[in-house]
Every structure is written in structure tokens, then in C-alpha cells.
Write a structure and sequence with these properties.
4 copies of one chain form a homotetramer. The first copy, chain A, has helices spanning 9-17, 20-26, 29-36, 41-68, 72-99, 104-109, 114-129, 132-156, 164-171, 173-194, 204-227. The first copy, chain A, is 79% helix and 0% strand. Chain A is mainly alpha-helical.
């Protein structure tokens, strides 16, 4: 499909291995609502508050990636990602929510819904119970899925959708660069640990399970967003 | 060599891969002193106090094995090992030390020497930074080395060595059973993650590094013991 | 209330601090269905399969307690609990499910529902992000709540409820002993770290948040059970 | 003493609590050799190679700080520190070592000496076994000690010492700012968890043990450096 951005070999394999769960995530009704602008603002704000808390724990999981790195390159990519998330990406949420009179303290203290809790703690536990690859397989659907959605919506979204800033954040060149950098790092990490034909490795099915599971948890996250409407 | 007990395929590979470091550990002067009885009692007690603290952290590392297990069998073997260490093996140290007027509270509070600290925290960090196999590769030299030493000394030690209880603990059938059970569990864990030819896997050299490193840290531990004389 | 068993000071404080969330958990419709026998068997089996997977991760969390212990007593209680869970308590589930033609392999491989995933990973992350007390506060509602429910139902359940074995497991003397042992250990752990007046400590509200959150996740677990009917 | 920089209340308490171990670290022969220029270059390079590997694991420990943070401020300070270490501070080592024909790959792969291994893994395990404060108490001696040494040597070192770049790195305004920022963050973290009078808290002696232990491990690190001469 021409719409699929190139974020590396590993992502292409994992994406294919997730089957229709991947489309269930990237073409979810919430996403289509961002594109055509019909997503209720209440649902969007509900999502945004939850996503802020998500990013807190997602940043913790990327920091765990630094703890579990085996090469300097892996460390640098993970450290840069943590810094980008904590010191920059969360600002989008803060400013958008501030415009809706939701303070950053309120964001940080927001009660996590069960779908949110389940997702981030699953990712963290993938790192605690497994190795760097287990963690990356669980982190990947969010990073790359938002990249793929952003890239598609940047081309296809209704010009008057009120969600243009969200779309340009993830469809824009900075975030697309992040996806390519992370994708290349993961390709190297996979080759280092599983060799040149990773899909033949004994551990591969287990990594696919993690990727697919995290993808399914993204579907639950969008469901939760719609429920906020 | 006829003296090498059979604790499974993985141990045989790791042992061979460690080269002369393995003999530096299992045939160390401290060990020979246990066998011929010439090890000064002061060195033995110094070792025993440090080994008690070692077992505290070694038990923590086996407990981390429960956290990182992927199968029920792995969980059960690790849980049983923790229970055996915490509720039984440490008793040998406690009773021997009690006979030398060292209380269990004194043992638990003993200041770790740097070789001791380095070893156990290296093992724990192998588990934190890697996966179940990384942890097992770092745990293996202690488990299997003591089994090999015990089995050899049970046959060859001077009949009048004062260290007969130590020798019969590790050379006796209970501990030899532990070695075979752990060896079989590790063989299964390796096959599950690396396939039928684990030594061909891309990760194998890294696992060997961990095993060899932990073996070298055992050498340092005996050195520390002798220093206590 | 005369029905509240004595599992120590800390539990009494945490239980009171959880307010009505505690009754929402211990007097949930699922529990009342166990007592009067009206719980559909399908709901019970659905719960039992999920609870088996729950116990896998709950055991991992208790093993993390060994990793995070500061005293030998804490280590021993946690190690004994892991051993009891992995080598004994899970057997109740296995035999009951076997009678319903569900194999242990099927249990171990069962897909976790989101409420289950959220709960156990929240507990594990309490241990990863915090210290021994953070972990204990998140483990406590399950241990003590089942004890309280079991003790109450042992006295009040309909004599012909088909769930007598479940009730006698948790209401029986062995499990009640576990609750008192764990309760005493937690009291000691709290005193060691927070002093004689723990509820005055700066950290106390945070520990209460963890206990209450885990209690709310128990409510979600029963809800999930009923949904299986 | 006028030479003691102000890095916050907690540091002042911990520093005093460490007694003469603190001076054993900050006024070590290695440090005096940096000041008067008499430190053999071979010892300095030996130290620098080991310190590079130290920083790899020290960065991992700061990343663990992100995982264990409870506030956004804690997360930001830890994330910024990881980024500074991984993407900047290690560059000093790389460029200095490159001038001595030691490549960054050689640095990353350098075999850790036992004092180095013991120190960094002790710090990491402080975080794994304890909470955010346990980790900070173990991280603090390196951060603040280098600041204090740098500040003192910037005023007192021989003008012709060949180690001027090291001194200006740690004595310069950027690093002194880091010390004040980290010190303020730790003060806040301590107050949040232990209240306004932290030294009265039940946990305080345990935190002091960690700080003092890590300080003693710094002494061992300098010893190791001198041994390289």
C-alpha cells in the first residue's frame, strides 16, 4: 500500500504480523473522526487528558529502554526520546488543554481509565519481564501507528477539521523523523540480538505477540476516547 | 573428563566457553584448601560470613527469575530455588557461624566486601538489563560450580578435613539434584528462546560473556576468602 | 464490626481509608452469588480462568517483594508466599478447571481481559516505581480481602451453594493464617520505614492511594467475572 | 567551611552524616594529584576509560530515576540529566581519550574493574530494591562530590596542571548549575516523602547508609585510578 510509511524492516514485519488488528487501530472511528472533523470535542479532550497521563508512563517506559540498552546508539535514541516526550511532546497536550481550562497539575493528577492503565503498565512490564526487544515490541505500535496515522491524515483530512494541530504534530516532518530514527534503531537492535533473519528466530512469535497485544490496547484506547463523548 | 557432572547441554557449552577461567574458579587455592584441610579456619569463617550476605542477594536474583519467567515450569523452578535458599541453605551458614559465636543478625548486617558487592549486583543487573536467559547465564556459575566442586571433593577430599560438612552439603544428593533440575530448566529455557542450536544464535556470545564474567567474579570471591586468613 | 478479621494495624488503617470502595469489593454481587449459590457457573469458570492468569502475575509481584525486602523476615514471608501461590494455591484452580475440561496449559495461555491486565501490572509497577511498602499496599487488598470474604462466607453462605470449596479455601484456617502472617509482616515493614505513627508520615496518603486503587481494581475484576455469565 | 558549595539541605545533611568518609573521597590523593598536576597521565587515562564505562551505567541509573519519579518535576530533572550525560558529558571523555588514541568503541567495550562494577551496580540496585529516594541517596555522592571538588580545584589548582580541562568541566558554571538543580529537586523529593524534618524520619538512617556507602565506593574508584599508574 502506498500509504504505508517506511519505518524500517522490523516494523514492516510486525505490522503485517498484527493482521487486521493493525487496521482496527489505525483506521479506528476515532481516527476517522479526527480526519473528517466529526469527532466530538468532548471525546477529543477526554482522550487528550488520558493521553497526557499515558505519555507520563510511556516516557517511563522509554527511560526503561535506556536502562536496558546494550549499545551506546540504543542508549542515545532512548534518552533523546525520553527528553522529547517529557520536555516537548507533552507540551502540545498542556497548551491544548490549557485553552480548554485544564491545568497541567490537573493533567498529571488525572485518574487513569482502566484501558489506559492496562496499556502503559503492560508496556512497562514487557521491559521488566523481558529484554530490550520485548520492550521495543510493546513500544512500537504507539510510535509507528501515530506516525502512519499522521502521515495519512496529513494528506487526506478535511481541510476544515478542528484537529489540524494534532494531525500536523504527528504527520509533520519532526515526528516522521522520530519514526524513522526509532525504526532504524530497532532494526539494528533486532539484528544484533536475532541475526539477519529475525523472523526465523525462536523468540520471534513471542515478540509478535507483544506487538499485536499493544496494538489491541491502542484500539481499546480509542474506544475509551469515544466513550468520553 | 570423568569428573564433570552432567548438568545439561547449556552448562556444558558455557563451561567450555569460559576456558581456563572455569578451572581458575573450580580449582582455586581456596577450594584445594577445603579439600586438604589446610584452609585456615579464619579464612573459612570470613568466607562464610560474606557468603551469607551473598546468599541474601543471590536469593533476590532467583526471585527476579520468577518475575522474568515465561512458563509455569520456569516459575516453579525459580520459586522452589528461592524457598530452598532463604528457608534452608542459609541455615548451614547460620548454624556453622553460631558455633563460632556469630549470630544471624550479625550475618545479615555484615558489611559486604567489594568483590561480594560487585558479584551479586552484577547478577541482579543482568536480570534487570536483560531477559530470563541473561539472568540465568549470570546465576549459573555459582549453582553449577559449587555442584562440580562438591562432587569432586566428595570423592577426593582428605578424610580428616574439617570442612566435611561444606563438602557434603554441595557434593550430596540433594544439591546434585538441584543442579540437574536447574540445568534441565535452563536447557528448556534456552531452547524456547534460541531454538535447537543455541550456540548459533546471534545473542549467544553475549550470554557467554555473562557466564564468563560471573565465573571470574567467583574467582574474586575465593581470593577475598583467602584474604581473610 | 464483628465480621472484620484482625490482620494487623496497617490493614485496619488502609481498609478504613478505602471507604466504601472496600465494601464495593468485599460485598460485590459476585461475592453474594458465591454465598447464596446463585452465581452462574459460567461466570464462575470465566472468573476462575482469569484468576489463574491473575495468580501467575500476582506470584511475580510477590517475588518482586523478595527482591525489594530489607530484612530476612520480609524475605522469608515473601518467599513462602510465592512458593504457596505457585506450588499450591494455583492447584485449586487447576483441579476445578480440569473437572470442567480446561487444561492447565489452556489456563496459562488464556488471554487476559483488560481488567485483569490492568490490575496485575498496576501491582507490579507499584513495586518497580516505588519501594517495598508501595508494593505491599498494592498487594494487600487481594490477600486480605479474600481472607475477609472467606471468613464471612464461611459463616453465612447457603449450605447448598456449589461454591463451598472456594469458600473453604479462603475461609479455612490455612488461608486465615496466611493473612495474619502477612499482616504482621506488613505491620513490621511499615514500622521499620515509617515509625510508630505511620498514618502521620508524609508518604502515607500515597500508600493509601495505592491500596484504594488496587481495591477498585478488585471491583473491576468481579465485574469482569459477572460479564462472563 | 567556606569551600562547601550550597547544593541544598539534603546534601548538607548527608555530607555531614558521612563523616570523614566524605573527606576521604573529596580530598583523595588522586584529587590532589589533579590539583597539583602530579597525577601520572597513565593513572588519569586509566581513570578516564573506567569513568566512561561508569557514566554508561550512571546514565542507566538516572534513567531509572525517570521510571521511579512521582512528579513531573522529578521526571524532567532526571530526563534532562540522562540526556546531558549520554549526549554531552561523555563527549569530554571521548575527545580526551581520542587525543590519546583510544576510540569510543574501545571505551564502550572496556572491561570494568571490580571497583567500578561494584559501584554502578550498587547504585542501580538501590533503585531496584528501594524507591526514588534510595536511588537519589546512592546517586548523590558522585554528582555533588564532583561539584565540590571542581569548585575547590577551580580556585586552588596549580595554574600549570595538565588537568585543567577536567577541573573546568566540573568547576565551571554549567556543572555547578546541574548540582544546584539536582540538589533542589532532591530537597523537594525528600520533603514530599519524608516531610519537613526528614532527619527525624524512620527511614533516614537507611538513606544515610546508602549515601555513605556510595561515598566509600567513590574512594575505591580513586584508589583504582591510582593503581593504573
Amino acid at each position: 500500500m502506498t500509504d504505508v510509511p517506511d519505518y524500517g524492516k522490523t516494523f514492516a514485519l510486525w505490522r503485517a504480523g498484527a493482521g487486521t488488528t493493525w487496521q482496527g487501530y489505525t483506521c479506528h472511528g476515532f481516527v476517522e473522526g479526527l480526519a473528517d472533523g466529526r469527532l466530538p470535542q468532548k471525546a477529543f479532550l477526554h482522550y487528550l487528558v488520558q493521553d497526557y497521563v499515558f505519555l507520563v508512563h510511556f516516557s517511563r517506559a522509554w527511560a526503561l529502554g535506556v536502562v536496558k540498552s546494550e549499545t551506546l546508539g540504543e542508549m542515545k535514541t532512548c534518552a533523546t526520546t525520553v527528553d522529547a516526550l517529557v520536555n516537548h511532546e507533552m507540551s502540545l497536550h498542556v497548551s491544548t488543554c490549557a485553552a480548554a481550562s485544564i491545568s497541567e497539575e490537573a493533567l498529571f493528577a488525572a485518574a487513569e481509565e482502566v484501558e489506559n492503565l492496562a496499556y502503559t503498565r503492560y508496556v512497562l512490564d514487557a521491559g521488566v519481564s523481558g529484554d530490550f526487544l520485548d520492550l521495543m515490541a510493546a513500544l512500537a505500535p504507539c510510535v509507528f501507528g501515530y506516525g502512519e496515522i499522521g502521515a495519512r491524515l496529513a494528506k487526506t483530512a478535511a481541510p476544515d477539521t478542528p484537529y489540524g494541530e494534532w494531525i500536523s504534530t504527528y504527520g509533520g516532518p519532526d515526528y516522521q523523523d522520530v519514526c524513522r530514527t526509532v525504526g532504524a534503531m530497532i532494526d539494528g537492535a533486532v539484528q544484533r540480538r536475532l541475526g539477519a533473519e529475525p523472523a526465523d528466530a525462536a523468540r520471534w512469535p513471542q515478540l509478535q505477540v507483544r506487538f499485536t497485544r499493544a496494538t489491541a490496547l491502542e484500539v481499546g484506547f480509542w474506544d475509551m476516547g469515544l466513550r468520553g463523548a
